Amino acid sequence: MRTPEHDQGPPEHGPGDIAGLARRHGLELTRFAYVLCGDRQRAEDLVQDVLLRMHRRFPDLLPLDSPVSYARRALVNANVSRARLASSREIVSPVPDRATPDQQDPADRDVLWQALLRLPVRQRTVLVLRFYLDAADQDIAQMLDCRAGTVRSLASRALARMRNDPTLDKAAGNGDAP
Amino acid sequence: MKDRDLENRLRNMLRERAEDITDAPDGLTRLGGSQAPGTGHVDDLANPRRRLRRSRWLPAVIAAAIVVISGGVVGIHQLVNQQSGPTAPAAPSAPSVTTVPTASALPSTRAVPATRASAVTTPSSTDATTSEAVPAEVTSFAGVRMVSARAGWAIAHDGLLYTTDAGESWSVRNPPGAEPAGLQAPVAAPPLSNAAFHGTEDAWIAAASAGTVTVFHTADAGAHWSSAAVHPNADAGMEATDTPMVLGLDFPTLSDGWLLTSAGGMGAGSEDVELYRTGDGGTTWTHIAAATQQQPSPTGLPDAGVKTGIGFTGPQQGWVTGYRGSQAGIWLYETGDAGHTWRATTPPTPPGVNAEATPQTFPPLFTSGGDGVLPVIWPGNVSTTVFYATADGGNTWRPTTPIKSADPMQIWSWPTATNGAAANDTTWCETDNAGQSWQCKPLPAALQGITNLDLFSPQSGWAIADGKLLRISDGGQTWSPIAPQLT
Predict the structure, then answer these.
(1) In B, which residues are within 8 Å of A45 by CB distance?
(2) Are A61 and A17 in contact (CB under 8 A)?
(3) DSSP per-residue letters across A148-176
């Protein structure tokens, strides 16, 4: 599975400790959590939580071939779990960070982002895994504990829902105009 | 828009969005469960910008990990403060962030005893924190639990609140020394899942801090509180450097209570937990079971399984609920001896449910006598929510008619054995025949953003949507927001 951040630091293979994982992959994991949940602060919470739990579980070394993959999967599960809970709506509700004036996004990008965040969490997760991590359906299925067919179905429904999103449609129309 | 175009735009947008984060995050809000005042409030959750800003949490994580690995017992929170520059002082008690999925709503009602015990008085019993006598509107409700038609409890920005006029006005009833943020349930747990109520005046609420869970008890609606502390990490033989999480607190009687905590270790499909019991209304607590990776429980309560909560129907019989991670099959453990031993139990899977899906069980809700329901969700492409019903105190569970929806039901409340309601982001379903049939409709507009539901009867109830309190009017037909005052 390729990640957009693989170029930014040495990949981590084999046993390491949580400090090394945090140092080398903290930014990558936080970015991933951010596109999963749509909120920077909540992404930080997710990453912190996952790293500390990994530390509690593996206090000495991480007996994992790919601790980054393990952490990503934990982030996915944590985010899905939170979103599934009514009380956690405040944690992962599709309300993105408000951009500060100097970070204002182009309108179309923002509309697309908003439309993505309006998707049910599993549909959104599948799209993030597929288009952000370029993960194969089988890999996504493993992360979500479901079958590859379910992944394809979720992706299909998510894309259909986005295509039919009126705000996105409008933005696309504007963008397509000469 | 063509599919390929949409996919390309998604790909580009996601990578651009990710690059908005250019360095280590600066918002250390919760590490190891310790929180600073101002974090953990529902306001802060709803509005992350209100959180205290800290810088450079990653070094703190690293330092904390190194210290813990080396056997240090310095609290992670202290490390964070040392590493993070100017911050607010530490809160003495606060729940930690948890990724543990839990039920989206707790029992709306429980049989109210005819009499209540006399107030528990201990050396630690003290007057409650008094609120300022300046009326103001209550903000940011997170949870509400009515214990009579007019009396009830809520958790909000100011902490634990109490009303005697059906929610029109509320007074702060925080236990002394407890920060309001510390009284919040873990962020991924249902509001008030760390609390239990009996009658109109008895209440217990658990607050976690580093290595400790303090259970507060009042027998006079919060005018006075007593407290007792347990130390989950120490009891499990683990380092007391992390804040345990309160997974559930239940008092089926005035004297019998159970406290389920997470020791923090959670892997794929497993979670370390510890269980405490009191037989004297919370004055003293006894550690009766632990299930950790390092220390498998001889009681039968397994480390395997992510736990969602606990529920007891009386002094002996109870359940721990959860799910298996990637494995199919209902995860449900039952005790018949007050929690000393546990065994797996598997209610029958109703027809039409994807048997390969991983169902999640949530704490049973008991209404009266032996009547109760056990919520079980099979998430999936089409999610199925089933409320198993019992009429014999949980000895047997039978599936009722499944609710199928694109997304699982997230909130539910059962005011009586026959009347129940469930909701998710888009749909409201209700039954008046114990789940034999469900009438579903689009979620009423007033309930958009619903996060908590507490039906006191089929015709009366409260809900919280986007932090605002709503009440049923028109005999159960209309939800109306109210503007409660803080007195």
Answers:
(1) 29-30, 97, 187
(2) yes
(3) HHHHHHHHHHHHHHHHT-HHHHHHHHHHH
ipTM: 0.80
Whether A112 contacts chain B with CB within 8 A: yes
Helix (H), strand (E) counts: chain A: 9, 0
Please check whether residue A2 touches B, CB under 8 A.
Answer: no
pTM of the shown model = 0.59
**CA-to-CA dists, residue B216 to B322, B338, B371, angstroms:** 26, 21, 29
* Residue B189: pLDDT over 60: yes
Mean pLDDT value of segment A156-168: 80
Whole-angstrom Cα distance, residue B276 to residue A49? 24
Give A17's DSSP letter: -
Supply the pLDDT for residue B90.
Answer: 30
Residues of B in contact with A40 (CB under 8 A): 20-21, 25, 27, 48
Q: Do B268 and A73 touch (CB under 8 A)?
A: yes
Q: What whole-number distance in Å separates Cα of residue A145 and Cα of residue B247? A: 24
Chain A residue with CA closest to B3: the answer is A159
- Cβ-Cβ contacts under 8 Å, B293 against chain A: 57
A152 touches chain B (CB under 8 A): no
**A19 vs B contacts (CB less than 8 Å):** 61-62, 65-66, 69
Asked if A167 reaches chain B (Cβ–Cβ under 8 Å), the answer is no
Which one, of B302, B294, B388, lies nearest residue B347 by Cα? B388
- Identify each DSSP E strand in B104-194 by its residue range: 126-127, 136-137, 143-146, 152-156, 159-163, 169-172
In this structure, what are the phi and psi dihedrals at residue B34, rounded to the nearest 5 degrees?
A: -75, 145
* B374 bridge partner residues: B388
Min Cα separation B197/chain A (Å): 19
Contact between residue B409 and residue B423 where contact means Cβ atoms under 8 Å apart = yes
**Residue B188 pLDDT more than 50?**
yes
Helix intervals (H) in B126-228: none
A108 or B18, greater pLDDT: B18
- pLDDT at residue B47 is higher than 50: no
List of residues 6+ apart from B47 with CB closer than 8 A: none
Residues B64, B81 contacting (CB under 8 angstroms): no
Residue B79 · residue B60 · CB < 8 Å: yes
Q: Is the pLDDT of residue A158 over 80?
A: yes
Question: Could you tell me which residues are beta bridge partners of residue B476?
Answer: none
CB contact under 8 A, B452 and A145: no
The residue type found at A49 is: D
Query: Is B64:B76 a contact under the CB 8 Å cutoff?
Result: yes
- The two three-digit tokens of residue A9, written as one number: 């630091």
CA distance B397 to B338: 19
> How distant, in Å, are the alpha carbons of B105, B200, B420 from that of B455?
11, 16, 8
Taking an 8 Å cut-off on Cβ atoms, the answer to whether B410 and A32 are in contact is no
B10–A116 CB contact, under 8 Å? yes
E strand intervals along B279-426: 286-291, 306-312, 318-323, 331-335, 343-344, 360-361, 365-366, 372-378, 383-390, 403-405, 411-413, 420-423
Chain A stretch 92-111, residues whose beta carbon is closer than 8 A to a beta carbon of chain B: 93, 97-98, 103, 108-109
Helix, strand, coil percentages, rounded to 5, for chain B? 10, 35, 55
- CB-CB contact of B196 with B217 (8 Å): no
Q: Verify whether the Cβ–Cβ distance A97 to B48 is below 8 Å.
A: yes
- Judged by CB atoms closer than 8 Å, whether chains meet at B65 and A22 is answered as yes
